[in-house]
Design goal:
mainly alpha; 3-stranded antiparallel β-sheet; 2% strand; globular; binds nitromethyldethia coenzyme A; binds D-malate
Amino acid sequence: MAKLKEKLFEKIQEQRPKTQKLFKEYGKAVIDHITVSQILGGMRGMKCLVTDISYLDPNEGIRYRGYTLPEVFEKLPKPAGAEMPYVEGLLYLLFTGDIPTGEDVNDVIEDLKNRRTLPQCVYDVIDAMEESHPMTIFSAAILALSKDSLFRKDYNASVSKMDYWSSTYEDALNLLAKLPEIGAHIFTKLYREGKKNKPDPKLDFGGDFANMIDIDKPYDDVSRMYFILHADHESGNVSAHTGHLVASSLSDIYLAISAMLNGLAGPLHGLANQEVLRWIQDLRDKMGGKIPSDEEMKKFVWDTLNAGQVIPGFGHAVLRKTDPRYMMQRQFALKHMKDYELFRYVDILFKVVPPILTEQGKAKNPWPNVDAHSGVIQWYYGITDYDFYTVLFGMGRSIGICVNIIWDRALLYPIERPKSLTTSMIEEMAKKAGS
Ligand code: NMX
Ligand code: MLT
């Protein structure tokens, strides 16, 4: 058994009795109460999911396995001379809760290397769909891998449910190892006339993606940063929740990850990163090469709001301050592209949007989220094909969701099945309860 899998198994054996005890001894303890506005309002704030992989504090932002993002970036091993850590190190941390050594990371890199080769059908699916949105292609490419699911094979062979996590782990690593090649093939097929560099077995996840799409350093660090920043955001967001929900019916990991990507592809979720760039380009065209003044930018923001649209990249369902994922990208941009025209746009928006959203008085959180910054960095390094940005988000998000699904299976969480009511039943119950 590979070292990471062995370590994971130890952790699973430690955690299983704790979860069983919680269920048996405290099964009836009340954690939350549910209001009518939560039921009608997208279940906002309802405490009804469990994960130990990450936790989102409204004011502090995300922690991975208890570590803030600056801590994660500081503690994880980095390739020699690199600014950003190995994505493979993050995978180790999310699975086990432990910071890996350099040797642990090398083991993961070696393991993933042997799982990279794509079956021909994936290339065929991508090539046949070139008129579709890249997220639709990405989702279909993942689905095409489902035919090789080892979990399904085990399930059909009546393996014990205590061991379901093991073949799910193999499926997950087989899937994650293939993501750089899938992403690079979609990108080069759609936007670079199929000119893709050969994979380099010496390179890591982020480094090889940068190599295959042929963007020079420090884009390898941008890739690493991007995939790590987007990996997980606790379990209630649409993509994470969808992945968990679909996998809870014992669908294989390919079906679950494809489904989570379909949720990520909505403009209120991951697609917002392309919307930000589309929106900024609209203003850039209007400005004819001039950087807008604060007053011109304010007018543009108000025009968007008055047209009944949202300001993409701002607001959040949980966060109540600037997203730390935004701040990390801002720090990177201040170091590498401080005077770049589009960064100046983003910088002005950072200043003018929050007071406008506050004045408008609707958004509960006027601050920027991760998507307000990610596109401009990609644009700077030559990925001006903004339809592709959500694929990059999805490559990162697949890491966190795969880890979550394996843990769900290891802890034997059941099929998800909440209860619905009719509107008149809610009216009736609300009247009895009073306001
Ligand atoms: N611009 C304009 N109006 C907004 C914005 C915004 N950025 N954010 C929230 N509002 C409005 C929202 O549409 C709602 O209006 P109404 O009462 O007319 O329905 C009102 O403010 C209250 O919404 P909130 O409770 O603050 O936000 P909610 O939790 O419902 O939604 C988002 C959260 C993220 C969907 C929302 O802030 C939004 O649409 N933001 C823009 C899109 C975006 O950046 N999405 C990416 C989120 C991060 N990600 O990657 O997933
Ligand atoms: C995410 O990364 O999933 C988004 O910030 C949305 C969320 O957490 O609700």
